[in-house]
Amino acid sequence: MKILSWFFIIAALIGLVGVRVFEDRLFYDPFLDYFHEASKNMNFPSFQWGKLIIGHFFRFFLNLFFSCVVIHYLFKKKQWTVQGGFLILIIFLITFPIYLYCISSEFEIGYLFSFYMRRFVIQPLILLLIIPMFYYRQKIEQDQRKG
After folding, report:
1. Which of 123, 86, 117 minimizes the C-alpha distance to 103?
2. DSSP conformation class of 34
3. CB 65 within 8 A of CB 124
4. Which 8-state DSSP code applies to residue 125?
5. In this structure, are residues 126 and 91 in contact, taking their beta carbons and an 8 Å threshold?
6. How many angstroms separate the CA atoms of 130 and 139, rounded?
7. Sign of the CA dihedral with 10 first, then 120, 91, and 51 last
8. pLDDT category, 34, cuts 50, 70, 90?
9. Which H or E run contains 45?
10. Under 8 Å between Cβ of 31 and 47
């Protein structure tokens, strides 16, 4: 059973990488080139709000799915998978409106601030915090059972 778990974890990680690698083909995001250029002097791109929001939601749900697969097969606790997914959702619900505000103000709030808000919206960075948190939680539970 352990081999099957590792297969799903690796497949989910490949899925997360695939979302990143094929982002320009999978999602509508005119800000990809804008932020890849890393130039504050580049013209603000024109875009369509509806397509942009739908593209970000689609990307979020793909990242959420693959992240939950990683959490589930690492810890094999349904409750933790739900909690991890909920934490990812909360971070998205906080950062997405802030990022949309940054776009509506054409990044007047700050180029770097907007850049990092975008990172939290389009990439599963919170997974890098959830996994160590759940490992620590697992260790605490094991220590409590022993002692």
Report:
1. 117
2. H
3. no
4. T
5. yes
6. 14
7. negative
8. confident
9. none
10. yes
- The number of CA neighbours under 13 Å toward the Cβ of 107 is 19
Rounded CA-CA distance 31/46 in Å is 9
- 22 with 16: CB under 8 angstroms? no
What letter represents residue 89's amino acid?
A: L
At 107, phi and psi to the nearest 5? 65, 30
- pLDDT-derived band at 43 (thresholds 50, 70, 90) equals confident
Q: Could you tell me the sign of the dihedral formed by the alpha carbons of 132, 76, 63, 50, in that order?
A: negative
Q: Which residue carries 């099957």 as its tokens?
A: 4
Cβ contact 121:85 at 8 Å: no
Give pLDDT, residue 35. Answer: 85
